[in-house]
Structure formats: C-alpha cells, structure tokens
C-alpha cells in the first residue's frame, strides 16, 4: 500500500539515459537556485531597493517571452541533444561571467541584469529542447513517473539551493555561489552528452516565423493542449502568492526574516511531499480532469491562506498548495508530452516555457497591485477563489480536456492517433 503512494522510480531503474539526465539536472538545478539567491542578494546590497530586486525577474522573463517561440522552431529543426549541449555550455559561460564580476568587484547592477538576460536567452533554447527528451527515453506508461521525478528535482533544488547558498555566501562570499553553479553544469553536460542523437521525426522544418505560426495553428486546433496551457495561466496569473509574503509576514508574524523564510519555502516543501507521494497521480487515466481539480485545490488552499492568522495554519495551507501544484504540473506534462507529435514538441514546449516564465511574474504583479488597492489578505483570497472559478469555467468551455484519457499505457501513441488526441474527440 505504501509503495503505491510513493513516487514511481521505475524510470531511474530501467533507463540509464534518463537516470544520468535526471542526476545532472538535479546538480544543475541546485546550482541555478544558488545563483538566483546570489543575484537577488547582490542586487539588494548594491541598491537597497526591493524594486531593483524585482527587476531581476523582468530581466529573466522578458527575453523568454521575446525569444521563446522562435527558439521552439529552432528546436524542431535541429538535433535537440546538440542544442542542449550548446545552450548548457552558454549557461555555464554566463555563470562564469557572474563569478568574474563578483571576483572583480564590478558592483554594477546593469551588468547583473545583462547576465540574467543572457542566461534567459540560453534557457529559452535549453528548456524546450530538454522537454522533448522524455518521450524518447521512456515508454508512455512511464511518462507520468518521469514528470513527477522531474518536479522532485525542481522543488528539492528550491529548498536545498537557497539554504546551501546562504551557508556558502556566509563562508566565502557570493562569488563562490556563482562558481558552484558553473561547476554544476558539468554534471548536466555529462548527462546530455551520453544521450543518443535526438533529431525531430519527419521532414525537417525551417526555423523562423513561418514555423512559429504553424506551431501556433497546431496549438489552436488542439483543445486538449490549449486547455492544458490555459489551466496553467489560470493558476499562476490569478493566484500566485509569492509577492504577498513580505506584507503578510509583517502584518501577522512581526516581520521576522525567519518566518518569511518559512513562508517562502512552504510551497516547495509541499512540492517535495507531492512529488514523493505522486504514485496515485501517475496512475490517473483522466489527466485533464485531474489537472483541473488540482488547480482548484491550489486556488482553494491559497484562499484559505489569506483567511487564517496562525503561522502553523498558513504553512500547512501553503504546503497543501505545493502538493496540488506539483500534481497539476505532473498531469499537465503528461498531457502535453503524449498529445503532441514529435515534429511539434519543440514549439509546444517553447510555448509551455513562455507561459511558465512569464505568468508567475504577471501573477505576482497582480497580487501586489490588488494588495496595494485593498489588502494582502483580500488579494490572496480573491486570487484563490478566482482560480477555483477559472478551473470550473475551463471545464465547461473545454470538455475535450475533461474527457482526455491516457493512451494505451503499454506503448507510445501511434502517429494516426494524434489527430484524435489533438482534437479531443473520443
């Protein structure tokens, strides 16, 4: 019984390629979170401005929005493994740039923004290309487990990375955080280097605006894929709570940095728990329906967070939101991976990356704007309830997503099944 609750580690046991890729991604993700911590702290030390720290997020999001879809057309035109190697090497060089400016004592905030933007451009290629690997490395039945293991990496890095960065920065300065991040890319590069070539199936496409438009037309025709991305928009734009944490911490808990740290990590801790206990989620057949339910739970938990006054209750509700979030992402990843033909995977993954990069920032802006007009509690409650209502509206307007069922778990969907999967007809 307990085994059925735990995350399925079959992909790690049966696929050496996936195992190496997963371990390399874990190292790189921890290093990346150390750089996120270091850039935010260095920016604040240089400027003393929370607005300047917030601008780091814009420096990261805007290039992803500007270049993300075009990068997807490149991913669908070339060997994805080679692209990841090139993009990861570029990110390593940028990490060395962060370290170099720290060692040189440059103390220029514009340089930090420029390096963040360059890192975002490289990630705009790297992230969509990496997302095409899983259906090639794992059978369809193991894709949900692979998605859960990937989410475990993300949430674990969000807990371990900043904590480790704090210790390293206290002992040797921010420059060591940047150096460790650069070194972590070596593990990621090794994991990708050992993979076989990952050329797109079918006739090669020419990257550019025409390929981007073709990908967008494919996405528009797919009620399942469109619904999956809109559900992510609904959850992040309407209910993202991170921008409210400092104000709620000051109002309810005296503004202690310790309690702010607990609020910040509570969702990630919930994500780790949700990933570790994702066995039942991986066995769901109606992934679209499950994704909408998980999104509604995320919204309800955040609305509850806006209502409670106790620290224990706040942390518990944020952890519940983290569990719901990871469940939703695992299901969404499964839907997108199995309902997208390989020839379009780069462009659809790029659209997913753009949504993932931009919408949380928009959601935090919404939360802060509503809080400034009303109160942080009202912002949290209204955003959470709007998310719940939004999930219901999506279910009503996009029944194809609700009806979506996993294909035969013993094999990948054959090419002639993709029309049914994309249109949502059963």
List low-pLDDT spans: 408-426
Task: Give the overall average pLDDT.
Answer: 84
> Rg to the nearest angstrom?
21 Å
Order of SSEs: HHHHHHHHHHHHHHHHHHHH
The percentage helix is: over 70%
Separate helix tally: 20
Query: How many strands appear in the DSSP assignment?
Result: 0
**Superfamily (CATH H level) name:** MFS general substrate transporter like domains
Amino- and carboxy-terminal Cα gap = 33 Å
General description of the model:
This protein is mostly helical. The protein has one domain: MFS general substrate transporter like domains (Growth Hormone, Chain: A), CATH 1.20.1250. The chain has helices at residues 2-5, 10-14, 16-47, 50-75, 80-104, 109-131, 134-137, 143-172, 174-193, 209-221, 223-239, 245-253, 257-276, 279-282, 287-307, 311-338, 345-373, 376-397, 399-403, 418-423. Residues 408-426 have low confidence and may be disordered.
TL;DR?
With 426 residues, the protein is mainly α. It contains 20 helices and no strands.
Compile the SSE list and pairings.
Layout: H1 2-5, H2 10-14, H3 16-47, H4 50-75, H5 80-104, H6 109-131, H7 134-137, H8 143-172, H9 174-193, H10 209-221, H11 223-239, H12 245-253, H13 257-276, H14 279-282, H15 287-307, H16 311-338, H17 345-373, H18 376-397, H19 399-403, H20 418-423
Helix pairs in contact: 3-4, 3-8, 3-9, 4-6, 4-10, 4-17, 5-6, 5-9, 6-17, 8-9, 8-13, 8-16, 11-15, 11-16, 11-17, 11-18, 12-13, 13-16, 15-16, 15-18, 17-18
């Amino acid at each position: 019984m307990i085994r059925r609750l735990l995350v399925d580690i079959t992909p790690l046991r049966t696929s050496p390629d996936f195992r190496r890729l997963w371990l390399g991604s874990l190292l790189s993700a921890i290093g990346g979170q150390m750089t996120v911590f270091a850039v935010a702290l260095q920016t604040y030390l240089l400027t003393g401005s929370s607005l300047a720290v917030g601008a780091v997020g814009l420096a990261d999001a805007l290039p992803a929005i500007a270049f993300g879809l075009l990068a997807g057309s490149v991913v669908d035109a070339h060997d994805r493994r080679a692209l990841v190697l090139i993009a990861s090497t570029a990110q390593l060089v940028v990490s060395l740039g962060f370290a170099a400016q720290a060692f040189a004592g440059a103390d220029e905030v514009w340089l930090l923004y420029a390096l963040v933007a360059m890192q975002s451009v490289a990630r705009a290629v790297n992230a969509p290309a990496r997302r095409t690997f899983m259906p090639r490395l794992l059978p369809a039945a193991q894709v949900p487990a692979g998605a859960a293991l990937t989410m475990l990496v993300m949430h674990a890095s969000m807990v371990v990375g900043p904590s480790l960065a704090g210790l390293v920065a206290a002992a040797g300065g921010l420059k060591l955080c940047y150096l460790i991040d650069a070194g972590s890319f070596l593990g990621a590069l090794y994991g990708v280097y050992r993979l076989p070539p990952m050329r797109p199936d079918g006739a090669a496409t020419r990257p550019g605006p025409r390929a981007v438009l073709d990908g967008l037309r494919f996405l528009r025709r797919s009620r399942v894929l469109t619904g999956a991305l809109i559900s992510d928009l609904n959850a992040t734009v309407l209910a993202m709570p991170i921008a409210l944490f400092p104000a709620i911490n000051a109002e309810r808990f005296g503004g202690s940095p310790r309690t702010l740290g607990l609020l910040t990590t509570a969702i990630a801790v919930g994500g780790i728990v949700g990933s570790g206990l994702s066995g039942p989620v991986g066995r769901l057949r109606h992934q679209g329906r499950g994704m909408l339910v998980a999104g509604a739970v995320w919204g309800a938990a955040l609305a509850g967070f806006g209502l409670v006054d106790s620290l224990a209750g706040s942390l518990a509700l944020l952890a519940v939101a983290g569990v719901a979030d990871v469940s939703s992402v695992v299901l969404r990843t499964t839907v997108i991976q199995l309902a997208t033909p390989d020839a379009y995977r780069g462009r659809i993954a790029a659209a997913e990356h753009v949504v993932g990069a931009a919408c949380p920032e928009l959601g935090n802006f919404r939360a802060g704007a509503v809080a400034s007009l009303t109160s942080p509690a009202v912002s949290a409650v209204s955003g959470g309830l709007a998310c719940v209502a939004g999930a219901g509206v999506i279910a009503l307007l996009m029944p194809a997503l609700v009806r979506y069922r996993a294909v035969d778990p013993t094999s990948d969907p054959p090419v002639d099944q993709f029309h049914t999967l994309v249109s949502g007809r059963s």
